[in-house]
Amino acid sequence: MSLNKVMLIGNVGKDPEIRYINANNTGNNDRVATITLATSERYRDASGAVKENTEWHTIIAWRALAEMVDKYVKKGTQLYVEGRLRSRTWTDQTGNKRYVTEIQADAIQLLGKRQDNPATTATAAPASTPSAAPAPQPKPSIVQAAPSLVDDMPEDMPF
């Protein structure tokens, strides 16, 4: 048995990059979104000074998730991302071997207040216009829990 699961909450560092891929030559272009997400932790060192450590993550979202990212995610948006680690290697033009580890997104949720999200505040109608329809909100991604493995374990397990 193995598990490859990543859960992150962080802020988008720059506007997402959206690409279109026609992989099956049917005319249906699949979207791919690449998001740079920052997660930070604060701690006190031995002298009591507050330190901050920021990690940068590359998130890859496909199809419907990429469409949602394209519509609603901008630099500064706070996100919850759930996915799995993927590593790739390639040889660059100079012959050097390159490695990258990315997170393949399975679910993305917008976090924070609506007015904090630059994607919704830029498109929202003024409050004084009563006939203006509110900006559409993405449907939250539904994540199903994995089945319990406890029921399948023998009772004589040492832990």
Summarize the structure.
The chain has 159 residues and is mainly beta.
What is the N-to-C succession of helices and strands? EEEEHEEH
Mean pLDDT comes to 79
β-strand amount: 35-45%
Integer-rounded radius of gyration: 20 Å
Structural class: mainly beta
Count, helices: 2
- Gross morphology is globular
Poorly predicted regions: 122-135, 138-154
Numbering strands along the chain, what is their spatial order in the largest sheet? 1-3-4-6-5
Count of DSSP strands: 6
Fraction of residues in helix? 10-25%
Distance between the termini: 17 Å
Major pleated sheet: 5 strands, mixed, barrel
Can you describe what's shown?
15% of the residues are buried. Strands 1-3-4-6-5 form a 5-stranded mixed beta barrel. It has 2 helices and 6 strands, in the order E-E-E-E-H-E-E-H. With 159 residues, it is mostly beta strands. Strand 5 (78-91) and strand 6 form a beta hairpin. The protein is globular, with a radius of gyration of 20 Å. The longest helix is centred in the middle third of the chain and has 10 residues, at 63-72. The protein is 10% helix and 43% strand.
Notable features of this structure?
globular
Break the fold down into its secondary structure elements and pairings.
Blueprint: E1 6-12, E2 17-21, E3 30-44, E4 50-62, H1 63-72, E5 78-91, E6 97-110, H2 118-123
